[in-house]
Design a protein that fits this description.
- It contains five helices and four strands, in the order H-H-E-H-E-H-E-E-H.
- By secondary structure, it is α+β, with helices and mostly antiparallel strands.
- Strands 2-1-3-4 form a four-stranded mixed β-sheet.
- Helix 3 links the parallel strand 1 and strand 2.
- Helix 3 packs parallel to helix 5.
Length: about 120
Amino acid sequence: MKLLINLIRNLVGGVIALIDVITRGPKLKRTVESQQQVESELKSLALYQFFACPFCIKTRRAMHKLNLPIEKRDASNNAVHREELLQGGGRVQTPCLRIEENGDVKWLYESSDIIRYLEQRFS
């Protein structure tokens, strides 16, 4: 039964991910210098995600729209990333944005909170 549920979840998630890629709109345009500055700041961020998770897809879609090539870490298939998420954030829940500022690391869960943070910081 659990195998069947996982199969259905992954199938539906894969379809949603495909639809997302097909229907994505344009990226936010910045000057070359401005985009380079943003990308420099993005080095302190990483998104822990599951590929087929609808909330992760929502977050990746917002990242695309905001033109934010944030490093994505697969917490579903990569045991190291999964363990980093568990040890650092306290639970294996995605999406989760790892934010490093001034030597401190914060773990931000919930797609709406992550998107709000990215919009406020990079819009």
